[in-house]
Each structure stands twice: as structure tokens, then as C-alpha cells.
Amino acid sequence: METPQVKFYYKNTTAEVLGKEHGITKQQFNELAKKTEPLIKQLNNDRKAKKVRYRDLPYQTDTVKSVKKIAAGVKGCENFVVLGIGGSAMGNIALQTALNPYMYNLDEKQRKGPRLFVLDNVDPQQMRSFLDWIDGRLDRTIFNVISKSGRTAETAAQFLTICSLLEKRLGKNSLKKHIIATTDAKEGTLRKITDNFGFRNLPVPDGVGGRFSVLSAVGLLSAAVCGIDIDNLLAGAERMDKKVSQKDFYRNPAAVNAAINYHFYKRGKRISVMMPYSYALKDFADWYRQLWAESLGKVKNLSGKEVFVGPTPIKALGATDQHSQVQLYRQGPNDKLFTFLTVQDFEKDVEIGKAPAVAPELNFLSRQKFSRLLNNEKTATEYALLASKRPNLTIAFDKISPYTIGQFIYLFETTTSIAGLLFGIDAYDQPAVELGKDATLALMSSSEYADLAKKIKPVMKIDKNFII
Amino acid sequence: METPQVKFYYKNTTAEVLGKEHGITKQQFNELAKKTEPLIKQLNNDRKAKKVRYRDLPYQTDTVKSVKKIAAGVKGCENFVVLGIGGSAMGNIALQTALNPYMYNLDEKQRKGPRLFVLDNVDPQQMRSFLDWIDGRLDRTIFNVISKSGRTAETAAQFLTICSLLEKRLGKNSLKKHIIATTDAKEGTLRKITDNFGFRNLPVPDGVGGRFSVLSAVGLLSAAVCGIDIDNLLAGAERMDKKVSQKDFYRNPAAVNAAINYHFYKRGKRISVMMPYSYALKDFADWYRQLWAESLGKVKNLSGKEVFVGPTPIKALGATDQHSQVQLYRQGPNDKLFTFLTVQDFEKDVEIGKAPAVAPELNFLSRQKFSRLLNNEKTATEYALLASKRPNLTIAFDKISPYTIGQFIYLFETTTSIAGLLFGIDAYDQPAVELGKDATLALMSSSEYADLAKKIKPVMKIDKNFII
Q: Quick check: do A6-48+233-423 and A55-228 share a fold?
């Protein structure tokens, strides 16, 4: 029996469909193949040399064992709260939206695990509302704080606040029972705290950046706790690992995907739109947004030359955004490459009711399936974009399951690696984020960053000449 | 006593801050003023000639009365479900996120009205999950179907499905009790159905496009039902109406905002990022996305010349997206204009806990307020963007209230109108959306659109040569 697949379809980027002016010709594809094949080899070699550590996440049997053990230990809790931000939150959110029902948190009949909350910000109103609700439920709640270092200001702020609340309500000894830490195995602030308090804990693996960490303990624990089959998730990633390691360009979906994105960027399409026709996949478009932006948005190439490179990723949602963005997508500047995500078999479906006699113009909907309507809308949008010569790709899910989601994650992570090599940049660092972090520290503390604080002062002052 | 204001701050777009190469000089501002002032006048005249009907929404006393009456009539229902999409959903969602607590649907102590759901898609899995939950609760649920015509496929599909379910569970006569229609006052499919079944109903005003309709009955009913003070919302819009009608460019925030956006677009900044530092405002960034994209993304100017114009709006969220997008924003191409939304007084706040003795490096957070951290993060990001010469605007809310939200809505609607005039395009139509709608009809029905269906066929067929 065939297991469900994720397939990559790229005909709507070709000159065959779009014409030479807008599409990629056979010759251009062959040039891309020639340029990309050595990079596939390089990535395979780097991977063997343990320089691309996320590539080994499908095979981390020890971590999976630890995750399952901890997940089993919190069985029966009613609320599971992730404290993290960026790469320590987005993957968790995306897995949950993809693999659990829409009404999961509201409907206990529809869930196999606890309610899940991922607090990925430090908004005072949002946090106040959440704390007011959770306050009387702390004894049935587990918190999973996720940070490699423990010094990320937002996560640390959430964590200290929760510790203080637990201590106040349930006593100092309650922390050990209610907090699980996912952090560096050896060093750092959160490691120190974890060892000091004796928290149960899981490792954030070395050499895996936040945006590549969803298949590590970072993403796996909340998934396992909420009833997601993490073995199948990793098996899906393993399945895709085979595909994307292939040396032949035309058989390697990550290579072709990266090359097409690179090609269109060079031709002036600076914007990359990911548009799932599936509510379940909407937060993976958000996850992709981080993966793509932080990895490829770089000022310097590997030779140190200033390049200011990087496509801007955008998330959209079908069919909803047809009523919001498609006007621009079709008639605005032809500066975008589109990636649709589609689902062949939704498994659960709804039948549309019968049109009333007074409105026969709605008969075309009577007794039709929602799935048919949604997938036809995708085809209709695809057709309309092609009519305006806008290139588009489709990632086709046979169905949505841990196995296909694992494939999808691994496909886009390796696509990112190959795209990084094509752009000639370091896809794994994020140097531009530091200044903002330092500036926050300067503004929060009085002493350590005094010089920087002085530099920021003029920005803080509102100049009355420029306010209306 | 001063009422809370929304202010527009633009110093960080000036040459004074960014230098001549990246900022707007005094002379350029004066040129923009000269170009824009006649357009302010034109808009004011068009408004008087009843050509810009959304401008009169703050003054619709009759509609407000009807909305309040209907809202009072459904008092005590437990669930209020909006069936709509695009302009008939986004404003409703944005108002709810802005003006009601984060945990509103989950915590009955935190809400004054029923739970609110806005179903703005036709995803089969999402809909199945929702229907499974609502099924046993139909007797305590009110549905508000919103569509000017009633022929929008997604809304019609939802509506027919709900009608069928109500009929099955509660009998044919239940429809009248459980459905409220917001639709054209005189004609169209939903008007026919409404009159036939005798639904309570509210008007979608003539000449107000979906994306400009949030302050009409479209957005007001769900807001009023959920306890939002719609009088103050409209009073805020009225307050901003005074500001944005001013002839003097430098006193008119909509004019300066539109001119700055126009100026940077012409200089190659094709992307417009709206980044609220407030969870409450995050869905207004989404609402803005529709307003901006559908209004300004146009193939032709008013003289009929092909221009393919339009900035691409993006939503981001502070501080969360610092850990996702800021790397690209600072070091990627300098092709973006940023608009921050900030809140001075969050009213509700949270105190961060004390750092444990083992981690003195977190002392800078101990006993600080979340509001202080979040607002310092905004300043830090602003500073970091300026260090990379990226222009940015700030919309500063004294606090978030119906009165300031009304100001914000009206400010951006009029900004859009003036930007449309600057670009020389029709900001109120959306011709490019039709082909996709027709294509959906062609794919759903067999007869009426047979020719179009034939044309779409090649798109539907998966070509085995281009799939991996």
C-alpha cells in the first residue's frame, strides 16, 4: 500500500506555460541544473561532515525516547503552555494547527491531550487575560519553557512571571512539578536554573538554529503531549531525506524548488507568497516565513561582499485571501512567485445544504462537498494567475498527516539550504538581530549598556515637528 | 479632560534622520504637499458629491439604532457566528481582537457577550470541527450571514449548510429565529431569501465596497453583540474625519501618510510592512492588508494606461516577528517602508517575576512591567532599522479603545483614498477578482460556463514531466 506523499509541481513556472518572457525555458532549466548539482553534492558532503546538523533530526532515537517518557509523565494535565518565541514557538504552533482539530482547545471531545497555549510574545494585555484565566487552573497545568540560552528577553520574562505565580499559589516546591525546560544540554542561563531547581528537561541540540529546530525536542514535546504521532512525523522527514539527497537535479524537489526561487528572484521577483488552500496548513506558511527570511535575508555573501539579498516571504490563505490579495496578485506588479499548498484528500468533509427554491442561482452549490469547492477555488486562482502571467508552484499533499507534514518540513528546510548556497550566503546565521537585542537590554538596564542607551535617546524623543 | 488620540509620527522617514540618499528632504516634502493638496480638495468635493460613501458612515444614526435593537434582541445567546469572507469578515475579526480580551471565547468571566466565531473560509476540516462542536448548541446560537449580493460562493456555501443543519435539528421555523442577514436593502440573492424567510436584517450600504465597510452594519452588529461601544467607535471616526478633511497638507495625517507611502513606492520600496507592537492590533494589520492591496493594486490608471502598480502590504507582529523577520528587514534589500503601531497606555499590565539568585544576568527583567519591555522592544527595533537606513512610520495610540480604533480605521481608509489619487488609479474597484470567481463557477457547474471550463482543463491536468 502506498503511503501518503508530498509532491512538488512546477509546470506553471515554465516557458511552456507562461511564454519565454515570463517563464523558465528548457535551456534555463538546464543551466540551473548545472549550477545546482554541485551544490547538492556540497550539501550532502557538509551533512556528512556534521556541519548541517538539522539533517540528522529524523534519526534522533534517544531524544524521541526522552520526549515520549516526559509526555507520558504529564498525561492527564488539562493545560500545556509553551513559553518560547520565534523558532521556539512557531513550529509548535504550526504542528498543532496542522494535526489537531480547529476546535481543539474549546472542545474536549475533539482532543486527546490537554489544551495547548503557545505564548510567543510579551504583550501586557494578552498576558493579563491569559494569567487571569489560568490562575485558578495552575494545579492542572504544565509549562514548557523553551530557550537554548535562557537569555531571550521575551521567554525569560514569561518564565520568571510564571515561576512567581506558581510559587505564590502552589508553593516553591511546585516549580519542579509544573515546569519542563527545553534548553542547552550543558550550559547557559536556563541550564543553570534547570539544574538548580531540578526541572525535567530536554535538549536543544547543538548546531541547529531555532528556525530549523521543529523536529528536535523543541517541537516534539508539545506535539507528543497533544496526541500527535511523532514517530510518523520523523518517518516522513526521513522519507523526504532520501528524495532531497539525490544528486540528479530533476529528481530532487528541494533542488528544483530552490533553483526556481533563485531564478525568479534574480529576474526581479522579490516576493515569495506561500498560499495554503487549507486552514490546517496556514501556520506552516508562517513557519516558512521565518525559515526563509532569517536564512536568506543577508547583507553579505560568503566572500564578504555587500549584496543586500533575500526574497521577502509572505503568507496568504486560500480561499480567504482571494477576497483580499488576489486583485494585487493579478494586476499589481509582476514581482511575486507563488507557492500553493493543496490537499487532495481532506478525510473530513462537509456537504453544502440545498439552495432554497427562491434562489436557483445557488443550485451549483447544492449538495456539493466543501472539499470540492475549496480545491476548485485553488484551480480557479491558479488559472487566473496564469492568465496574468504570474508563475506559481504547487506543493500537493495526498492528505494531511504527521507523515506528510514531516516530509513538508524537511523539504523546505533543505530547499532553504540549497537556496542559501545558490545565493552564496550563510543560511544559518542571523547577525542583524543582535543590535535590536542589545538595544532592548540598553533600554531595560541602567548600567551595562550605557553608551548604547545614549545613542538610542534621540530615537525615543518625539519631535513635535513631525507628529500629527 | 483630553480624550485618547491616535497620532501619526513620520520623522523617521526624513532626510534629517536617514540622510538624503534614504530619506525625504524638505524640498521633496514641499513637492509632495503641492501635489497632494489639490487631491485633498478633490476628495473633499467627491465626498460632498456622495461619490465616497464610506466617508459618511460615522453619521449613520438610523443604522446604529437598528444595530442596537437587533443586538438587544439576541442578548443571552451563547454563540454568535458570522458567515462572511473578505470585507464581510476581516473588520469583524479585527474589532473583536482589538477590543475584547485575548481569552474571550474561552473564559466566560472575561466576556460580556456570547462567544464569537467568524467563519471566513470553506475548509472542510475546519468546518467539520466547528459543526461537530456547535451541533449540540444550536438553540443558543445566532448566525449573522453577511453578503451584499448573496452570491459569494464561500458565504453562500456556509449559509446553505447552516440552514440545512438548523432545519434538521430545530425545524424549518427555526431559521427565522437563528439567522440575521446583513445584505443589500433592495435586491440580490440574499435579499430575496431574507424577505422570503422573514429574517431580521440590516443593510449593506450602497457605494461602500467590502473593504471600506467595517463601520457599517457589516462590522457593527457583531461588535455591539460582543459588548463593544459602537457609539464611541463612530465618534472616533468622526473625530478623525475632522483631521483628515483639513486642506493644509502638513496638518492632515492621511495626506502625509499617503504621500510618504507614494514617495517611497516610486523610489523602489514596493513593500509596505505594518507591524503592531500589540496583540490587540494584530488583526487590524490584516484588515489593512486587504484595504491596501485591493485598493491600490491596479493594472490600469484612470487614463486607461497599463501601469501594473501597487505596494504589497505585509503584516508583522512585534515583538514576535523580531525573531523571524527583522534579520531580513535590516539586512535584506532596502525595499520596504515600515509602519509601527504602538500603544502608550496598555491599561492592563503584568509584572515580571524576580530572577532567581542563580541567574543574576536576568536581573534587568526583575519586577519590570511587560508594557515597558514591549515598548522598549519597539524602540530597539526602530533604532536598529534606522541604523540600516530603513524608513519607518509610527501610529501611536494613547490607548486602545473604541474611540481610538475608530480614529485608526478612518485614518487608513482616507489614506487609501488619497494614495489612490496620487497613484492615479481607481481605488474602489477590484476587476481582477472576477476571473477567479467565474472560473470557480465554471468548475462547479456543468452548463453555464462550459467554454471557460474547457479553457481551464489544461491547468487541472497534472503533467507527469513536472512533478517530483
A: yes
A377 assigned to active site: no
Q: Decide if pLDDT at A448 tops 90.
A: no
Per-residue cell: B279: 496583540
- Rounded Cα distance between B54 and B279, Å, is 27
Per the CB < 8 A criterion, the answer to whether B319 and B379 are in contact is no
pLDDT tens digit sequence for A244-286: 999 999 999 999 999 999 999 999 999 999 999 999 999 999 9
Verify whether the Cβ–Cβ distance B348 to A124 is below 8 Å: yes
Domain spans of chain B? 6-49+233-423, 61-204, 434-466
Q: Tell me the CA distances in angstroms from B345 to A125, B397, B401, one per residue in order.
A: 10, 8, 11
B322 with A433: Cβ contact below 8 A:
yes
pLDDT of residue A1: 52
Residues of chain B neighbouring A22 (CB-CB closer than 8 A):
none
Give the integer Cα–Cα distance in Å for B394 and A395: 38
In this structure, the number of other CB atoms found within 10 A of the CB of residue B183 comes to: 27
Q: Hey, what CATH topology would domain A6-48+233-423 get?
A: Rossmann fold (3.40.50)
Q: Annotated catalytic, B154?
A: no
Average pLDDT score over residue span B400-425: 98
Q: Is the pLDDT of residue B446 over 70?
A: no
Residue B42 contacts by C-beta under 8 Å, 6 or more apart in sequence? B421
Q: Which residues of B touch A157 (CB under 8 A)?
A: 352, 365, 368, 370, 373
Q: Please name the helix (run of DSSP H) or strand (run of DSSP E) that holds residue B298, with its range, or none.
A: strand B298-300
| CA neighbor of B371 nearest in space, from B275, B280, B273 | B280
Rounded Cα distance, B351 and A158, in Å: 10
3-state secondary structure of A181: strand
Residues of B in contact with A85 (CB under 8 A): 319-320, 323
Inter-chain CB proximity A365 and B160 less than 8 Å:
yes
Residue B294 annotated to the active site: yes
Marked catalytic residue, from B437, B448, B454, B455: B437
Omega before B89 cis (within 30°)?
A: no
Check whether domain B61-204 has CATH 3.40.640.10, yes or no: no
Q: What is the pLDDT of residue B388?
A: 97
pLDDT band for position B429 (50/70/90)?
very high
A307-312 mean pLDDT: 97
Q: Stretch B150-177: mean pLDDT, rounded? A: 97
Angle (CA) A98 A264 A415, round 5°: 40
Of B320, B346, B433, the CB nearest to A124: B346
B35: Cβ–Cβ under 8 A, 6 or more apart, which residues? B259, B422
CA angle (B29 as vertex; A299, B393 as ends), nearest 5: 50
- Using only the alpha carbons of chain B, give its radius of gyration: 24
What is the residue-averaged pLDDT of chain A?
97
Quick: pLDDT tens for B298-336.
Answer: 999 999 999 999 999 999 999 999 999 999 999 999 999
C-alpha count within 13 angstroms, C-beta hemisphere, residue B79: 21
pLDDT tens digits along A84-135: 999 999 999 999 999 999 999 999 999 999 999 999 999 999 999 999 999 9
Task: Report how far Cα B123 is from the mean position of its chain's Cα atoms.
Answer: 21
Minimal-distance CA residue of chain B relative to A331: B299
Q: Which CATH number fits domain A55-228: 3.40.50.790, 3.90.1300.10, 1.10.3720.10, 3.40.50.10490?
A: 3.40.50.10490
pLDDT for res B447: 73
Class of domain B6-49+233-423: alpha beta
Helix crossing, A217-225 with A61-73: angle to 10°?
Answer: 40
How many angstroms separate the CA of residue A83 from the nearest CA in chain B? 12
